[in-house]
Amino acid sequence: MDVVYAIENLTKFYPKQTSPANKDISFEIRQGEIFGFLGDNGAGKTTLVRQMVNLLRPTSGCISLLGQPVAGNPQHVANHVGYMPQIAHALNNMAVGEALYFTAHLRGMSRADARRERDTLLELWRMGPLRDKYSTRLSGGERRLLRLAVAMAGQMPVLILDEPTNELAPQRRRLVWDVLSRINRERGTTILFITHDAIEAEKVIQRVGIMRDGELVAVGRPGDLKQHIDQKLRLELFFAPDAPPQLPAGLAPHELQPGHWIALIERREASALLERLDLERLDDFRLYSPTLEDLYVHYAA
Ligand code: ATP
């Protein structure tokens, strides 16, 4: 299978940073795959993809796209990669249909093809009724869908999406995952994204990369990586932030936020452990079968 991106020993220090935002990262993205990056806040995911699209210069290491280096070659990325950053960039207050048509045309489609592409994308993203609406008048969710549609306009062979479903309502999240898997299937688009929506993303991800503290700690197929945690259960504890519970020996949870801890525990030890929990000090506790999301708790341990 052809390699789309090859990343070798990539390290990135921001000015005045003592530990790197990306530390000696190496991996490949293959043609036609859907690859998802997961990791805690600040793990270095956005830093990594910004280097892949040449918006940020690596401190050391190299990135090549379709066999050519990305550094010093901005046109090469622009010709092949549709990128959706996490933070919205202005859509120049164009109408939805115009934004799609002009982007497709600027990316090399004839006027007739660009019109067809606009109509296909309006249909794919269920934005037909919004065609003549100006982007500044769209809701936050509609604007995110437009940014996704703009990223793929012109049949870009590679898409890099920084949190495509962030802040979307559940129905729109599902639409995003459906559309991404459809264009992957129908157009052969290679898709790389960052997400915190691990449970939904798991349905479309073919390979996953787990990031932690600047390092790529695991890469593989979700099913293979999940074997590491299939004998475990996720335990979540909820309590008043100023009154944390005493924990049984051996339970070392990860703090998601004050008053909300999470731990992976062995299935066979679950009932004994629950008996030893200080239920008086807990507002609530929950037990779940592990999901892809729990891999970063596993690798954080
Ligand atoms: P999130 O899931 O919260 O978006 P992330 O995994 O994308 O996080 P990055 O945004 O890549 O993480 O940040 C990695 C580290 O680099 C963090 O410690 C962050 O504070 C730091 N960092 C990010 N951008 C800059 C910058 N422009 N200057 C200095 N430090 C930065």
Low-confidence stretches: none
Q: Tally the helices: what do you get?
A: 10
Domain count = 2
- Which structural class fits the helix and strand makeup? alpha/beta
Radius of gyration: 21 Å
Element order: H for helix, E for strand: EEEHEEHEHHHEHEHEEHEEEHEH
Kindly identify the CATH topology of the largest domain.
Rossmann fold
Q: Biggest sheet: strands side by side, in what order?
A: 6-7-8-3-9-10
By CATH reckoning, the class of the largest domain would read: Alpha Beta
Beginning-to-end CA distance, first to last residue:
34 Å
Mean pLDDT: 91
Report the count of strand segments: 14
- Give the distinct bound molecules: adenosine-5'-triphosphate
User: Judging from the principal axes of the Cα atoms, what is the shape?
Assistant: globular
User: How big a fraction of the residues is strand?
Assistant: 25-35%
CATH superfamily of the largest domain: P-loop containing nucleotide triphosphate hydrolases
Determine the fraction of residues in helical runs and give it as a percent range: 25-40%
Major sheet attributes: 6 strands, mixed
Second CATH tier, the architecture of the largest domain: 3-Layer(aba) Sandwich
Overview of the molecule:
This protein folds into two domains: 3-220, 3-Layer(aba) Sandwich (Rossmann fold), CATH 3.40.50; 226-300, Alpha-Beta Plaits (2-Layer Sandwich). The chain is built from ten helices and 14 strands. The protein has helices at 45-52, 74-80, 96-106, 111-124, 140-152, 170-187, 198-201, 222-226, 270-275, 295-300, and strands at 3-12, 22-30, 34-39, 60-65, 68-69, 81-84, 158-162, 190-194, 207-212, 215-220, 232-238, 254-257, 260-266, 284-288. The strands form three sheets. It has a six-stranded mixed β-sheet with strand order 6-7-8-3-9-10, sandwiched between helices. The protein has a four-stranded antiparallel β-sheet with strand order 2-1-4-5, covered by helices on one side. The two termini are 34 Å apart. Residues 14, 17, 21, 39, 41-47 line the site of adenosine-5'-triphosphate.
